[in-house]
Design a protein that fits this description.
By secondary structure, this protein is an alpha/beta fold. It has two domains: 268 residues, 3-Layer(aba) Sandwich (Rossmann fold); 189 residues, N-(1-d-carboxylethyl)-l-norvaline Dehydrogenase, domain 2 (Orthogonal Bundle). Helices cover 45% and strands 14% of the residues. The chain is built from 21 helices and 14 strands. Strand 11, helix 9 and strand 12 form a beta-alpha-beta unit.
């Protein structure tokens, strides 16, 4: 076994820093950084990444000890076969923290080679804090830090219109680029930055809305010795990721020439409109997950993998996607079916233990957003209700009873939701239970009893 420090001796090409990345977490290292490594190998991108630490007050020692090198292990099921591959990532050249050296952080903006800002500061990271009144001190929020960095770049490069940046936020919120730009502009106004900077920001910097998708479980704690034997390195920064990856970027056409992912076979797309991609993810991937939980859990299954290994549940999931969800979507069928096949492969991943009970968090609001629109759209188009999704609806009501055959179900949802179901399940008449659940506008945004025959259809599955 090679000692811990030996991975730091791996030769790496000295490349200009073209990417500043906010966030040291597993996701970006197993997603964006993995992609940039491939870009460096297969195209003339020739750029390195400098990471800005978003949290904490000291640089993680492993980054420095390993000279920022680490492995990504891609493991899963894809196109009918098991994938178990590894890639050494050498494209990161440094990690710094604005709280430790704000001057060094601002100096990063002066780099004329810089092209991209990538971030994943969690869903709560894109916020504005009006108490950040002085940009001479380190701003508390990510958008504040970014605003200070961009103003430093504008000032040092004298408003050079060829040196704007492309900002690619990967936070899982809708319109993440628009919201980040709004926060940056608010900081610029709060700090009384001159109008020329606002114009430069608006015309030369692209804040792109993005949609990202990849499961990155992180460090392989359980079998790290196997990974060390495979690589010959002791790697404390290694991450495991599934084969599937998807990145849609709502950005300018010129971005394709700079971010040359099309040459690499990476599943990255520069698009005019993210909404179709977001809709298919919510309805097919998220919708199938949410519909699966009560149906499988009430039948004694506890993980997604177990569900896919069970012939009845596996067939149920596949038929639900192809026969009920896809027909309710107004998108090209070929693309939807390809995405569906990828989703089913992801569900079959033998290397990821995805607990159904963890997916069940806030199932009512998830069902309202991810599944109910499909039920209503299917009914509107076909003139009947989708049987599998109605079965899931009935099982969801059963699931929220909170026990199955005397075994407690650890429900996690809003207190108001749990209190409602606790009261409604004191009723002994099943038809009354269904009627009251469907009538609750707080849960569904409408009284579902107003939809003819829906209650009767749910009752049919509720009784059987």
């Amino acid at each position: 076994m090679t000692n811990l420090d030996s991975i730091s001796l791996v030769q790496k090409k000295n490349r200009p820093v073209k990417v500043l990345q906010f966030g040291t977490g597993n996701f970006l290292r197993g997603f964006a950084d993995w992609m940039i490594e491939i870009l460096n190998q297969k195209t003339d991108f020739d750029g390195s990444i400098h990471i800005i630490q978003s949290h904490g007050k000291s640089i993680p020692e492993d980054f420095v000890k390993q000279n920022y090198n680490y492995h990504v292990f891609v493991r899963g099921f894809q196109n009918g076969k098991i994938i178990d591959e590894q890639k050494l990532i050498t494209s990161i050249c440094g990690v710094s923290n604005p709280n430790l050296d704000y001057g060094f952080y601002l100096d990063l903006a002066k780099n004329p080679d810089l092209q991209f800002i990538i971030s994943n500061t969690t869903e709560a990271g894109i916020v504005f804090d009006e108490k950040d009144t002085d940009p001479k001190n380190v701003p508390t929020t990510f958008p504040g830090k970014l605003a200070a960095l961009l103003f430093e770049r504008f000032t040092f490069l004298e408003g050079n219109k060829k040196k704007g940046l492309t900002i690619l936020p990967c936070e899982l919120i809708e319109n993440n680029g628009d919201k980040l730009k709004e926060c940056v502009m608010r900081y610029a106004a709060l700090w009384n930055f001159r109008q020329e900077f606002l114009d430069w920001l608006d015309t030369t910097c692209s804040f792109c809305n993005t949609l990202v998708d990849r499961i990155v479980p992180g460090y392989p704690k359980e079998n790290f010795e196997d990974f060390e034997n495979k690589t010959g390195f002791s790697d404390h920064l290694a991450v495991v990721a599934e084969p599937y990856h998807f990145w849609a970027i709502e950005g300018p056409e010129a971005l394709r020439a700079i971010f040359q992912t099309e040459k690499t076979g990476l599943n990255v797309h520069v698009v005019n409109n993210l909404q179709p991609y977001r809709l298919r993810k919510v309805r097919i991937l998220n919708g199938a997950h949410t519909a699966m939980v009560p149906v499988a859990y009430l039948r004694g299954i506890r993980t997604v993998r177990e569900a896919m290994e069970d012939p009845e549940i596996s067939t149920y999931i596949s038929e639900t996607i192809y026969n009920e969800i896809i027909p309710a979507l107004d998108l090209p069928k070929e693309g939807l079916e390809q995405f569906a096949a990828e989703v089913l492969d992801r569900f079959r991943n033998p290397f990821i233990r995805h607990e159904l009970i963890s997916i069940s968090l806030n199932s009512i609001s998830k069902f309202r957003v991810r599944v109910l629109p499909t039920i209503l759209e299917y009914h509107s188009r076909i003139g009947q209700f989708p049987e599998n999704l109605i079965r899931s609806f009935a099982d969801l009501i059963r699931f929220y009873k909170g026990d199955i055959n005397g075994e407690s179900i650890p429900l996690k949802d809003e207190p108001a939701v749990l209190e409602f179901f606790e009261k409604v399940w004191k009723k002994e008449n099943h038809e009354e239970i269904v009627e009251r659940v469907l009538a609750n506008e707080y849960l569904w945004g409408m009284d579902l009893n107003q939809i003819p025959r829906l209650g009767a259809k749910v009752n049919h599955f509720f009784k059987n």
